[in-house]
Each structure stands twice: as C-alpha cells, then as structure tokens.
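As a warm-up, study this chain.
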Amino acid sequence: MTPLDDLRGALREIAGQEWLDEADATWSQAERRPTTAVAFIGPYDTGKTTLIRRLLVEEGLPVPGHLAVGALPTTDRRTEVAAGDLVFIDFPGLGTGRGDQEQETWQALGAYDAVVFVVHPGLLDSADLERLLGLVDGSAFSPHRPRPPADGALLLVIGRADLMRDPCHSPAGFRAAADGKAAELAEALRSRGAGDAVPPVHTVVADHSGMVGDRPGARPDSYAFFPDAPDAHREVDGIDGLRAALRSLAPRRAELRARACTRFWEQLGTAALLRADQQLKDLAAESDAADAERDRLDGLAHRLDGLDQRATGNLRAGVTDALASVARSVPLDSDEEAVTAQLLAALRTPVDVWLASHIERLRRLLAEAQAVAPTPESGSPADALGPVTDALRTTPGLQGLVPPHLVQGLLKGAGPALSQAADFAFRHRYKVGPEVVSTAIGHPTGRQYMTQLLDGEEKLNEAIDSLETLKWLKRGAAALQVLGTVGGGLLQRRQEKQAAEARARLRDTLLERTDDVVRDILNGTEDAPGWSDAITRAHAALAACAPPSPDHFEARRTALSGTVERLQRALGAGDAPV
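Now compare it with the structure written out below.
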C-alpha cells in the first residue's frame, strides 16, 4: 500500500466517501489537461486580467469577451483561457470581502501546474505577505511537510508598475524604481523566513495608463507607449521576460503535473487534518454535553422515583383513612349494596384529589424532560415522552381505578364481621324492660339469654331467688322494675361493647386489604392503565432520550485519533505520496 493509498483511506474516514469522490473528479480533470495549466491569482485591482489579455495579444491569440477589465472587480469566477501550449486560469481577486471565494481560490491552487501571483506596486499587507510566503515555501499546501514549488513554477509579478513611476518620462528611472520594488518584495519574503526560496520577481506594465483596456481588436503594437519608437516599450514594460518564463513551463508539463499531484493530495490531507482537529473538538464538546444531559436525565429519573414513592404513600394514606371512615360510619345492619355504595363514596374524593395532584406533577416533570435538544442517536425526547403525556390527558374515573372485583373482595373479607355486627344490631332492636325479665324466667330461650346476660346460671338463680323473695314480700313489682333496669343497663353495655368489637373487626378486615386497594388503583385495568404504567413508560421514555455512553465517545475519539495519525504518517512519508 502506497502513502497515497493511506492518505486516501484516511481522507475517506475523516471527510467521507462523497468528499473523496469529488476530490478524485477534480484531480482526474486536472490530470487530463493536455497543456501546462498556469493559475493567475492575487489581490483585486492588480491587473491580472489585463496581464492575461496582453499575453494573449502578444501570442497572436484571440481575447475572449469574458476577460473584461475595469476599476471595480470584474472577475467573479474562475475562467480558463487557452494560450497555445499553456492554459491560463484567471481567478477572482483576493481581498474583495468574499471569504468563501478566497477560500475556494486557495483550495484550488494545488491542482495547477504553476502559479503567477500578481501584486500591486504598493505591495502587500501582512496577511497577504503571509499567504504569499505559504506559496513560496510550500506551507500553504502542506504545513506538516512543506515542499517549495519546482523552479520556475511560481512567478511573482508586480503589476501596473506604471503607477509608481511613468516609464515615458524616464525609462531608466522607471527600471531602477521597478528593480527596487522587486528587491523590496523579495526582502519582505526573506525577512519572514523564505530564505533562498524566493523566486525572481517580474515588474510589468501590461497596459500603460489603461490606454487599450478591453477594446477589441488590440494588436501587440497597440500597447506601445513611446510614439517615436514603436518597440521601445518592450525594453521597460517587462512583458517579454515574463513571456519567456511562461514559455519555459510548457515542455515541463509531466514534471510539473507530478508535483501538482503531490501538492493537490497533500493540500487535501492538510484540509482533512484541520477538519479532524475540529471534529475532535466537536466530539469533546458533544461528550461534555452528553455527560451534562445524562446527569440531567438521571436527576429527572431520580425525581420520578421520588414522585412515585410520594404518590404511593399519599394514596395509601388516603385509602386507609377512607376505609377506616367506612368502618366507623357504616350501619352494622347494612347490606352489601349499601356498603359498596359507601365504600365508593368514601374512596372517590381522596382518589380524585390524589390523581389530579400527582398527574399534574408528573406532567410538569415530563414537560421538563421534553425541553431538551434532540440528540443525533436518540431523536427528540418529545417523540419518546409524548405518548406518556398524551395518555395522562384524560383522568380515568373512579370505576376504572377501583374495579368491581376489588369492592367484592373487600366485602367478601368483611363478611363475617358484618354478619356479627348485623346480629348485634338485631338484638339491639329489642326493648329492654321488665317484660324481658319476666319472660326470661319461664322461657327456655329467654332463660339462656338471661344466663348470658348475667354471666352464668348461678347468678341467674340468685336473681330468681331474689325475685321470689321479693314476690313473697309482695314487692314483686318493685323487684321486677329494679331487675329490669339493672338487666337493661347490663344488656346495653354488653351490646355496645360487642358493637365496638364488631366495628374494630370490620375496620381491621378492611384495612388488611389496603395494600390490595392501593395496588389495584396504581395498576389500573387492561383497558385503563393506571399510575404505575405511566411511571414505567415515563422511565422508558427518559431512557430513550439518554445520549450515548462515555464509552461510545471514547471509541469515536480513539478511532478518529488513529486516523489522524495515519494521515500524518502518510503526509510525512517519502518524498511524495504518489
């Protein structure tokens, strides 16, 4: 595998196959050019287009109409012009404020065989000098392994030189000024580290005072500016020297094309390294954002658990109070239908209040979870949480929360206690008075009842003896009244005690079912899922919103760093990657 293969593989991993395909198409087009391609670049208003027009006229070639000149920038896109054994590419001027256009210019230079960099007589500012230095030492294409251009493949031209001094007034003075300006440019580059790599600088007057401009039908003598000596301008305008330098490039097409290939792919590699560096920074920022989002979602999940625990506790407290209230207030002789109605009535208010309060809290928590930017891997949290909030829009009725089988189960468990309570209530309907005592003496059932009332046969016999004694004393009526009063009080107290015990057993029986009631309310039914289902789906929705794990980002960082190392090795291997 060649260094170029490594470089292309790394480019594919960093920038993608589409980007590599575009690069292949660009180089394939450049490689098929049958002539040496020379790019003309530089700041706008330096006379690049005028210079190309003059060179074409000097070669006796037609000047295309699109090569217009003017005081304002007139070249807004790259144009190619055939020039015999050469092809000239006129680039839009630098410094026009079109950042995208300038970036495209610098990125495209690597595919051309030679470059003519045209500057203004006022020379360049610091930024332009640094860019030019990048062309001189090769760092503009490959800062990791700068390769200066081949000899003669970079031509520096000071255009519109007649602006610094009119050559018509003093040709010798003009040439001296021109040579001084060229030396000044070369020294500026050397002072910035170019050393001996500075190429010769051509100072030219392509169209003195713009006397030809873009007038059609121009001939070589149209550019003469000494009226009495038609060819004298050639000794001072510098065009012949530049033409000779350009003509020397034509037979070197294969050599220059090979260097261009190296330069082109290394320039792409450098761009890919910059892109990879930005990708690593973006990846670090994305990882940090994922950590923050993961912490946020963990916090929401913890709050969701807390809300669930509080909701369950509050529901249990409400159900407990409701069941205890029914046990205290239900008539002990009530039938199942009446108890069912009282149970539902007692549960409705606390369950409705509980449900409205906690569902609103759940909605607010889910709304907070939805207020987050989508992540590439998981999509929008709203997509995951939306169904949960939609399911909570309609509060289910109590019948859905307290299904019939639950009430039936409550009554089934409370049946014995209700039966005992009903029996005591039945007894309590009898009037307590003397007739009870008198009946108890002779009636077997009454005797048994009175025995229970007085806690034993012995006490009953004592009461009867006392009654007989009182009768003997003819005070029977008074005795009956006394015994009836005493017996009635005893009976009432016993019935009250037994009724309280019956209610306590009823309360205990109902409260034993509290957990069942709470569980069934939380679970709901198949047709109307309850609170627990909403909590489960909310947890699942939060999990679906979770960003990738730290291991995911570390794997991406490791892979990208490995690709960068491969690319750096490919850019630094051998004399050229081809």
